[in-house]
Amino acid sequence: MLTYFLIGAIIGILTGVPIGPANVAVIDSAYRHNLLRALAVAFGAALGDCLYAGLGVLGVGPLLVRNPSVPPVLYTVSGAVLTVYGIITVRSQPVKAVPTTRKKELATDSQHMLAGFALGVALIFMNPAAIVTWVVIVGSYMGGVSELEGLSATLGVGAGSLAWFTGVAYLADHGKRVLGEKAIWITRVVGVLLIGYGLFSLGRGLYAFFG
């Protein structure tokens, strides 16, 4: 059980490394809002990864294999979503703090965390190509395992993904403190990279249809 959990955790960390909407959202939240918002996004994204990994363990992969037209559709939709989110990120501005009472500050923090959590989950689910990645990676490594072993691996994926996104949140928050107002350029650069990744994914999907 522990072995599968550790395997899942390693997979969760490694799949978080490539540029993607969740990484961008965590960095953007740390720079434009605060660390709490970034951590909430991290929790939401990790939950999304965990659920998709669970689908991979349950054997959704064969459905995609039997329907070769599905992955191109997912990549096309994913590319469009990533491109739009990248444009929004590039155009976004830091949220200016306004004087509030402690009670209002706590309420605002709660709202930020809830919104951040919802954003993290939504970005994973609005990136349909993520399920292709998870069913291929997790499904290929976890094929034939027992239910308990699959559950352990799935929880490991969630833990590894959370560890990665949390680390990104803390690094982004530290960078914000060091760079000050110049930190906004970090999110803009990352947004441009995300647009490029989105266009690549969009082109990949369209090429499968018309190439």
Please specify the SSE layout and strand pairing.
Layout: H1 2-16, H2 21-32, H3 35-57, H4 61-66, H5 70-91, H6 102-125, H7 129-141, H8 147-179, H9 184-210
Q: Which structural class fits the helix and strand makeup?
A: mainly alpha
Number of strands: 0
* Nearest-integer average pLDDT: 77
What is the first-to-last residue Cα distance? Answer: 45 Å
**Helical residue percent?**
over 70%
Task: Classify the beta-strand content into a percent band.
Answer: under 5%
| Uncertain residue segments | 97-105
**Can you count the helices?**
9
Gyration radius from CA atoms, angstroms: 18 Å
For the record, the count of structural domains works out to 1
Note the run of SSEs as H and E. Answer: HHHHHHHHH
What form results from the Cα inertia axes?
globular
Major sheet description: none
What tags apply to this protein structure?
211 residues; mainly alpha; 9 helices; 0% strand
Descriptive account of the structure:
- This protein has one domain (2-210).
- It is 83% helix and 0% strand.
- The protein contains nine helices and no strands.
- The radius of gyration is 18 Å and the shape is globular.
